[in-house]
C-alpha cells in the first residue's frame, strides 16, 4: 500500500548557535490592559470579558489583533485575515484555544488575563503539576514570531555561526564544547570543529566570569541576535595545549540535517552510518539519498546518529522508519495520536477523524516530489546513538520501530522524554506551541516521559532499551569508528557485549538532572531564547 497522505511538520534546532524571537511578535502596544497587573474584566473588540470558568468559542477572537498585519501571508499566498482588536481579544483567544486543545486543559489555572502581557499570559496557560518523578509535567510550552517560525520550518534557515554547542557545565567553572559544525558556515571557515572548547568571548572569561554584565555578553555571543555582528572567541582545539583566537559573525544559514554518510567495512559485513541532526524539510531528500548510497554499498546493519536530533517532522520519522525496515512496516501503524478527553475520536485542530499514523513509503512533498517511491534497507534491527538531546520525533522513531518488533539497539545516554506534540498555530504574528497530543506506537505504548535508557546504564531512569550506556566522546570526530558511541555500537554488533561504563552522570535522564538543579542559577549561561530553542518538537500542521 502506498501512503501518500501529506502531513506537514517541522522543527526548532537544539542548542545551535542560533537566534529566534521566542515569545515575540503579536503583542504590540498595550491598548486595553495594564502590563503591570490589573483587576478588571476589560472587554475586547470581540465584545467579551473574562468570566472565570466560562469559555467562549476560540473562533470569536481569532485574528483580532493589537497590530493587525496587512498584505499577503507568505505561508498561504493569501491576504492576512487579521482585523483590528485588543490585547484582551488576543488573550481570550489563547485562553479558549488552550481550554479546547491543550492535553491537560483541566490543569490550567484560569487566571484573570488583565494582569498579564500577552506573552506572560500564554506562558502560564499550562499545567503546573509535576510528574511522578517530581519535575514539571510540561517543559515544552513556547512561542516564536511567525516570521521566524516560517524561516526555520520551511528551509531550516536561522541566524547562526553554524556551530552546535554542548554546555558541559553552564555555571562556573563552565565548559562549553563544540559538538559539530555545519559545512560552508562561518564556523567551518575558521576551522572550528568538534571538541574545541570556548574559553573567552571578547576577552571575557567564559569559564569563570561571575558578574551579570559578563554573562549577558557571553550569552549574546553564543546565541547571536544580530546578523553580521562579529565576536572574538578564544578557543582551545581538542588535543592541543595551545589557544587560538577566531572571529565570527552570525549569518542566515541553512542547516544540513543529514551529514557524514559512510560505509564502515567489518569482517561481519558492511555497516552504514550517518549523522541525522534535525527532522526538517530538506532532510526528506537527504535521507533518501543516504539510504540509496548505503543500499548500493550493501550494508547489513545501520547506525543512525541521533545524539543531537531534537525532533521535528513526525512524517520524516515515519519515512525513515520505512527506509530502515521496508516490508516489515507494511500495513503497520507508526504512531497513534491521542488528544485530550474532549476529543476521543476527532482531531480538534483539523476536524478530521482520528486515524493511525502510517509508515510512509513515498515522498510527501517536503523536499521530494509527492508519491516519489522511497528506498529501504529491509533491516530487522537498527543501532541508534542517543543523548538527552535525542527527543520527540527522534524518540517516536525508536518507539515506532519497537512497536512493530524491529529491534532497536540504543547506544549512548537516556533520551529526553517527550512523547508529546503540537500543531504550531499562528495568531496576530506569533506562532504558539502548546502540548495537544501524545503519541503511542502500534502496541499502545507511549509512556516514556523519562526517556529511553540503554539497558546497561548504571542509572535506570527511563524506559529500558537493549543497548550500551556510553558517554559522548568529544576527543573523536563524529563517524570515526573509534568515537566511543560508534565504537560501542560496532562492538555490540560483533560480540553482543558493551564496553564498561565510564561514569553515570551523563546517563541520567533529563528529568533526573532537572531534579538536581541548583537553586541559584543566576550565573549560568542560560539565555531565555536559547532555552526555548532547546525544547524539542513533535509537530503537526494543518
Task: Tell me about this structure.
With 542 residues, the protein is an alpha/beta fold. Helices cover 20% and strands 24% of the residues. It has helices spanning 87-101, 118-123, 146-155, 186-189, 212-222, 283-296, 314-325, 393-402, 484-495, 510-515, 528-533; strands at 16-19, 64-65, 72-73, 78-79, 83-84, 142-145, 157-169, 175-181, 197-201, 204-205, 230-236, 244-249, 251-254, 258-266, 269-276, 301-305, 311-313, 333-338, 357-358, 381-386, 407-412, 420-421, 425-427, 430-433, 437-440, 452-454, 463-465, 467-469, 537-539. Strands 14-15-16-20-21-28 form a six-stranded mixed β-sheet, sandwiched between helices. Strands 1, 7, 8 and 13 form a four-stranded antiparallel β-sheet that branches. Strands 10-9-11-12 form a four-stranded antiparallel β-sheet, covered by helices on one side. Helix 6 runs parallel beside helix 7 (314-325) and helix 7 (314-325) packs parallel to helix 8.
Summarize the structure.
The chain is of the alpha/beta class and 542 residues long. Helix content is 20%, strand content 24%.
Write the layout of secondary structure elements.
Elements: E1 16-19, E2 64-65, E3 72-73, E4 78-79, E5 83-84, H1 87-101, H2 118-123, E6 142-145, H3 146-155, E7 157-169, E8 175-181, H4 186-189, E9 197-201, E10 204-205, H5 212-222, E11 230-236, E12 244-249, E13 251-254, E14 258-266, E15 269-276, H6 283-296, E16 301-305, E17 311-313, H7 314-325, E18 333-338, E19 357-358, E20 381-386, H8 393-402, E21 407-412, E22 420-421, E23 425-427, E24 430-433, E25 437-440, E26 452-454, E27 463-465, E28 467-469, H9 484-495, H10 510-515, H11 528-533, E29 537-539
